[in-house]
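[step 3/7] fold_predict: job queued, chain A
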Amino acid sequence: MAILLGLDIGDTRIGVAISDALGVAAHPLCTLTRKNRQVDLIVISDLVSIHEVECVVIGLPISLDGSLGTQAETVQKFAKRLEGVLNVPIAFQDERFTTAEAEEILRELGKDAREQKGIIDEVAAVLILKDYMNRCQESASPASVENV
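[step 4/7] structure written:
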């Protein structure tokens, strides 16, 4: 399995998570405070290089009705620019409810709203990455494994 980098892209911060080499677990890596597009692209590109990432998974904020709203279009535009500076593929993962789920996890861990602010995006990135890894494992059928 490849090392994956998960991104939860927001207007002011980008949560970053990374998988292990076996594709079994996802861990928080960092939260990037957005500077400008060029700096953001360079920092993510550096993370991909440093951690020998083979695929970047970006959370796509799909509306509850399944449509792509303004924020999803903004994320897609950023992904297109990121694709231009990376030598690895980019995949999208539906990120509906990940922030709410991340808030719940942190609340259960006893983190108040102030403490959550610094790590909420990382936890959301972990959830996005885990959902993607689960989806990939589910789509690998025994027949396709045998044919390899």
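[step 5/7] annotate
The chain has one domain: 4-139.
Confidence is low (pLDDT under 50) at residues 141-148.
exit 0
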